[in-house]
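Researcher: Going back to the complex we discussed earlier. I've cleaned up the inputs and rechecked each line, so this should be the final set. Can you rerun the prediction on the complete assembly and write out the structure?
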Amino acid sequence: MIIVMKAGAAQKDKDEVLRRIKELGYTSHVIHGTTRDVIGAIGDERGKAALQALDSLHGVENVVPILQPYKLASFEVKREPSVVRISDNVAIGGSQVVIMAGPCSVESEEQILESALAVKKSGAHILRGGAFKPRTSPYSFQGLEEEGLKLLAKARDLTGLPFVTEVINPETADMVAAYADVLQIGARNSQNFALLKKVGQLGKPVLLKRGMAMTIQELLMSAEYIMSEGNQSVILCERGIRTFETATRNTLDLSAIPVLKGKTHLPVVIDPSHGTGNHHYVAPMCYAAVAAGADGLIVEVHPDPEHASSDGAQSLKPIKFDEMMKKLRLFADAGGRTL
Amino acid sequence: MIIVMKAGAAQKDKDEVLRRIKELGYTSHVIHGTTRDVIGAIGDERGKAALQALDSLHGVENVVPILQPYKLASFEVKREPSVVRISDNVAIGGSQVVIMAGPCSVESEEQILESALAVKKSGAHILRGGAFKPRTSPYSFQGLEEEGLKLLAKARDLTGLPFVTEVINPETADMVAAYADVLQIGARNSQNFALLKKVGQLGKPVLLKRGMAMTIQELLMSAEYIMSEGNQSVILCERGIRTFETATRNTLDLSAIPVLKGKTHLPVVIDPSHGTGNHHYVAPMCYAAVAAGADGLIVEVHPDPEHASSDGAQSLKPIKFDEMMKKLRLFADAGGRTL
Amino acid sequence: MIIVMKAGAAQKDKDEVLRRIKELGYTSHVIHGTTRDVIGAIGDERGKAALQALDSLHGVENVVPILQPYKLASFEVKREPSVVRISDNVAIGGSQVVIMAGPCSVESEEQILESALAVKKSGAHILRGGAFKPRTSPYSFQGLEEEGLKLLAKARDLTGLPFVTEVINPETADMVAAYADVLQIGARNSQNFALLKKVGQLGKPVLLKRGMAMTIQELLMSAEYIMSEGNQSVILCERGIRTFETATRNTLDLSAIPVLKGKTHLPVVIDPSHGTGNHHYVAPMCYAAVAAGADGLIVEVHPDPEHASSDGAQSLKPIKFDEMMKKLRLFADAGGRTL
Amino acid sequence: MIIVMKAGAAQKDKDEVLRRIKELGYTSHVIHGTTRDVIGAIGDERGKAALQALDSLHGVENVVPILQPYKLASFEVKREPSVVRISDNVAIGGSQVVIMAGPCSVESEEQILESALAVKKSGAHILRGGAFKPRTSPYSFQGLEEEGLKLLAKARDLTGLPFVTEVINPETADMVAAYADVLQIGARNSQNFALLKKVGQLGKPVLLKRGMAMTIQELLMSAEYIMSEGNQSVILCERGIRTFETATRNTLDLSAIPVLKGKTHLPVVIDPSHGTGNHHYVAPMCYAAVAAGADGLIVEVHPDPEHASSDGAQSLKPIKFDEMMKKLRLFADAGGRTL
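Model: Rerun complete. Updated structure for the full complex:
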């Protein structure tokens, strides 16, 4: 931690900072600058709010953290990329680009089986579908709940595809984990720390979505919550951040891919459906994500988008998904990945 | 709902839109424009994802909602401002500006009692203090939990001040409600719908904070979640939104006060401590909030900010809080409010 | 400047950083941390892109600037608040809150004279009105240009009010300066450095608006452009920043007032008309701005907003402006200011 | 334009809206909804601020524009993609992906010639380099001005590469146009309408960068400014928008590519150097941009980034640029484009 003193700070202010640094168990080191002094506090600064609070001392201009606040998610602990195993045949983070596809919500047996067969045929590796739906409006469809989980399991039996589904409440997390292959934490729960701790205690891989106003560092801190409970199988998912632009539902931040690859060993997948909110933009963003080095994609596919209970506007029809997958193979090849 | 057709859309595309509108139980009405047609779908559009999904039909440019998606929070249901009663002596939403003050976290008996006595002496009406803390880092102090609730109750016994404290998990919500006078939903849980539903079922007033990337409409939708479960005692709280500006921790959106006053009967309070993240900026933002018509403030006050377990940098010392309160009275007077 | 090395950076990488620091004329100072080293580069860092570019060296994690990059606008050069004199009777930055009011655009002699008389009667100190209009669309009204300046001068003759008007092009800046009392730099030109240099060479006070995506530090850098050309009479104006919220045209950042007051001696005024984009929200934001310590306001007033050539939706009618001014006096009093 | 009336608006309020619509020369059409009425105003709404101002009328909830406000940039005027010719050998918008590369600033003859030779060898089609530099700080290097233009021309003579350089002032625009092949409008001047009009009158292609807080619609409106002056050779450039994320200098919005391709016939290029601000992230974003369908890239390449006068941190060394170009060919192939 670096403490920057104000220009012309009094000696007694500096002495007080030095006293506090010592009191907190850190070693201090002063640099005398041309217009002001800068004090280094040496030691592990993770979780030390008390150090940050030094900026309320008299004569202090600001306090600059030096260390990244996450550890298990960082290269300090693990140098090589993590490969998260989902099933005997599927793992995320290796040379294969993994495709998760399916409808936003599970609506009926017919709908989910039809979707599963279609995405499998086009080459998807994992089925997606929501049984518990976090909807902005209490008057919107809230999901089929356990019935939806049973239908997803049925689709898995039929196709062999493992499935990912969202968990929205610590109280129902065990039930979801009893059915699902991958537990999804949605963007709106990305800092629901009670839920993060809970899925950290379950033995299933977690797909952690970035929140709409979440920095990349905060995304890694939320991963750290899960990992610090003992679950290292975390997959990070960029799904668009909220900006001033309204031409897309969110702004898909594809630069998060190389940024995350430089900071963490965890795999990174992209959700272009929520990221753009418009099915016309999904395919180009799939190609771009894979070109940028994503380890996987999660894509909304619905057999009848105009009648979907949720997110119809951003869902691909199976035929469009199939076209996209064909072209995607070319980009995966160009990037030296398999699909 | 207004469906805007593309310039030159084919007749069969328009016919399909009309057919779907009818199928969904709405009446349609076409306006023939100079370059394109516009189709109105008449009927209650709340919760109708299917209408929005019409924008994936061929020939449709976009779909424009007309109705606000919330109802219980709107003036449609209640014209006069709601006054939320907290205790025999305290109610929010009337002529009195209500001040909630206290430390970010409950740290010890001495700390919370000292804080409670200090803020009471300066004229605060409600004590604030966190027992369950949603912290970005799993390595940061997570709160004293039930022990913290007991200390808050002790401070209430000592001072007569009711208290507000955060609830972070549906599983512990009943326990918090057994102690607290007001349940706070924090910014990071503002779209944790499982938690919103839960506090909607408890008989205690709820202080609902706006999320960092939450529009005002979404804030009202989250209030609607609580109200649709039967709890009408909701207090809205603006606490800063996330923007590109880094000089403050968040950007406090004071225009939310007149905007909300034009859309809802619910009371509106402001949190300048989280809104700015810097104790130097708290007092001016308190004055501004009251001048703009806020019904209350929630302010962090700590007897020893430099040693606080959390949020020291944005906490006022009791003496600064006292100065602020004295000046605040003048602004409350100017606005025709009592303090 | 602080250079943070990567954990485990090689000695030769550190040596290279030290060599470069010396080459650039700075003194270096190393702090050996527990997991990484931090190197201070001592000396004036303003304008030194070369120092910042050290972060492309091998082994460097990042480079943290310590000094503020502005000087003339800072307290380093001038400790007491600047008072910018506009005319014999009007100065901004002293105890008086200065009100600038008038229409967005000058549209006709009748309109500007009527506006000037009305705002003067309600107590405004300066007339505002646009003769050159920077409009988003080339098909929108672009202003009366020199004819508009003449009409503003006529209104000044009639009422005694000095006027502020926008300058949008270095080529016409001299012409505008020949008429106007205050030159306005609009938000869209806030980093038009050619224009900033030009108005820095003219002998008229400058009202500098913050750009829509401009940090407070960048606003001060743009002021520095004007001041470094010799013109110290700069008035800073917050007029709303662009965020994800669409309920208001922009998000008015009132915390910019205390932030700026802590960083610069220059006066600060607020534009709640552009800041909110809606006449319903203007009065509460005027009260809030003055309560937060603003030195002045700039408010759009139009005798017939529904027929205005621009910005009708955010303009106050004279009767509403008059009501606002009456109530504003109470808030100015509460803050110990005159109006 | 659609005018949404408030629920329960009085008949006389509706009559007044109808009267105004007629007065403005539009035809009105009323839809009676279940809770409120909606009125369509039929006619060309471009440039009609008076229509928008109807939202200040009593009883009006809001006014919703239907038409896009741009025309020349839209498919209404031209259905097929525009190909902007730069030289005998280079055109942007066709099947070839066009690469512009070179240093941020022209610093010396040696530096620009070395850069030009290097980027040409790796396959770039156009040289980039700044002679007039819009810098945030007045104390930073401002460019070599006309001397820089001469050096760029010398580099063109040597390599045969046409060059793009920034124009920052209407007063010096003719001079820049006398040397340059493509005129760049930088992000900070993207709504400097005086400058847009000026380059619209010059006979050279214009590379128009998106501003940091500019919506895609506003980018098209700025293109419309240039085109409405008679210059149809406009190339749009996405270079990152400003968001809350600080891990990158800006957030590169690659979804702008498919969004723009759906709205305009103008070619679209991407600037990953400014878009990320970090040379480590440039190559992945180049691949992603081409995969998403970009017509070209503009990339900063500097022979000695650690000594660059500007933007060293985001510049590629020639050897890294060469590696990137080799891999980029694979992605261009995958997308059915040549390089």
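Model: Worth noting: Chain A is about 35% helix and 15% strand.
Researcher: Good, that matches what I expected from the previous run.
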